Fold this protein.
Amino acid sequence: MTLLSLRGIRKSFGAVDVLHGVDLSVAAGEVVGLVGDNGAGKSTLMKTITGIYRADTGSIEFDGKDILALDPGQRRRLGIEMIYQDLSLAKQQDVASNIFLGREPTKRLLGLFPGFVDKSEMDRQAARMIERLGAHLPSINRSVGSFSGGQQQTVAIARALTFNPKLVIMDEPTAALAVREVQSVLDLIRRLKSEGIAVILISHRLNDVLSVTDRIVVLRHGRADADLVTVNTNMNEVVSRIVGGGDTAAAAAHEQRG
Amino acid sequence: MASEQPGFWARVQRASVERLHIRLESLVVLLALSTAMALLSPFFLSLSNFLNILLATSTIGVLAIAATFVIGSGGLDLSLGSVMGLAGVAGAFVAVTLGWPSVLAVIACILAGGIAGYINGQLVTRAFVPAFIVTLGMLGLARGLALVISKGRAIYGLPPEIVYIGQGRPFGIPMPVIIFVLTAIVAHAVLAYTRFGRHTLALGDSEGAARAAGIRVEHHRRIIYTLSGALAGLAGLLFTARVNAGDPTAGINYELTAITAAIIGGTNLFGGRASILGTMIGALIMGVLQNGLTLLAVQSYYQQMAIGAVLILAVFIDQYQVRKESRV
C-alpha cells in the first residue's frame, strides 16, 4: 500500500533550480534510503515533504490525501515526522518541552481558563518515551543544551516517535554518532519497520543504507535518477549511480571499507 | 562530564529556575540593595515609601513585561517609551480635545499602542527589516506623531474617572500598583504555563525548531509585537492618568529602563529564556535604585548614568554565566 507518493516535484530558489520533477513513492512499513551527492537536493526534497518548503509544482499525496497545501503543523498531525540533521531542538528548554513542542497537552486552570500546559502529564509521558528508547538522560528537567550529542539525538528521536507517526524522515541520523550509538539508531529503524512505520533515511554512510533499507533512491541533479532494490544491488552500483557512471571501483572499495 | 554531584547552592539555584522561573542572584541583589538603602536613608523603610516605589515602578514594570515577551521571543522593541507617550496623548486627545466618554479614551490608549505594535510586527515579519531598525524607526515615528497630535503641548484636564485610574487609592493602595500587579500575575501565568508562552520562548530559543514543530512563527511574532504595543499603551494610560496630562514627551528613555529590568530579571538578551517574576524583581531593583538615589539627593542626571551602567553590567554578568555553564 502506497503511503507517500510524490509526482513531478519541482522547486527553485530564485534562479537556482534544485528539484527538476522528482517522483518518489514509499509504502507503509518500507525503509527507503535516499542518497546523492552534496547539492543533489536531498534536504530540499525532504523539506517539501514536511512542509517547511512549498513545492512550486507537482503533487504530494500522503495516506491517500493531497497534502500540498498543508503547513508543517498539519502534516505532522497526519503522521509525518522528521529528525533533522541539526536536530532542531530548542536548547534552553527541557526534555518534555522539546518532545511536546507545538503539541502540548493542556488543561483548564481552576477548571476555568483553557490553554494551560499540563506539565506533569508532559513530564510523565516524556520519561516513559525516553525509557522505551532505552536511553538514559541525566535529568528530564534539565535544558537540552546541557546534554551530549547522543543524548540530544535521543530527545529528537523521542519527539518524532511520541505521536505515533506513519512516516519518519531521518536526515543523516548517524553522521555525528559514536559506533555504538550508530548501531542503536539502525536497530531503531528496524524496529520502526517491524511496527509498520515507514522510514526515509538520508545518509552518506552507504554501509548503513545498504544494511537497513528495502529500496535505495538515488537523487542526482534534482531528479530521482535510480530506484534500486537493496537486496539486488551493491556498493559499486550505488556509488556509480551517485556519481553518474564511469569507473567507480576505487571509490566503491573505499566506501566498502567504510 | 556533568555527572558530579552539584553543590547545595547549585541545586537551590536550579530549583529556583525550574520551579519559580527566577534567577536567585537577582533576588539577592534586590535584598542587598534594599538593605543598603535602608542603612543609608532613614526614610527608605516605611510603608508609604514602599508604596511610592511600587507606584513609581508600575509604569516601567508594565513596559518591562512587554520587553520580556519580545526579548524572550528573540525580538527587540525599542519603541516602548515612545509608544507609551503616543498612547497617553491619544487617550487625552479623545477624552479632552474630542470630549468623548472616558471608556473610549481608555480604549484609545490601548488601541494606539496595539496598532503601533502591530505595525512593528508586520514590518519585522513581512518586510524583513530587522526588529532593531523597525522599532528604532517606530521610536521616532510614534514620538513625532504624539507631538503632532498634541501640537507639542501637554493636554490637561482629564475627566475624574481617568484621573482615578492614576491617583485613586482603594484600600490605600494606588490604582496603578493594583493594575500593574494584576497585569504581572496574568502575564506570568501566560508566559510560564500556557502554550502561547512556551511557544514564545521556543521561538526565541530556535526559530528553526519552532518552525519544524509546526508553530506559525511569523504569526506568533506579530501577536507578540502587537501585545508589546498594547502593554505600552496600558503604561501610557497609567502614566497619563497619574500626572493628569497627556504629555507628548512622556516615556523618553523608558525603554532603556524596561529592557534593563527584563535583563536583570534573567531574560536572555538573545531569547529563549525569560520569566515575568524575574522581570518584576528586575523592575523593583530599578525602582529601589531610583528611589534610593532620590532619597539620597543624587541628581537625576547621575541616575540616568546609573541605569545605563546597570544595563551593561547585567548583560555582562548574564553572558559570563552562559559561557561558564556551556563550558562543561
User: Anything to note?
Assistant: Residues 179-194 of chain A form the longest helix (16 residues). The radius of gyration of chain A is 19 Å.
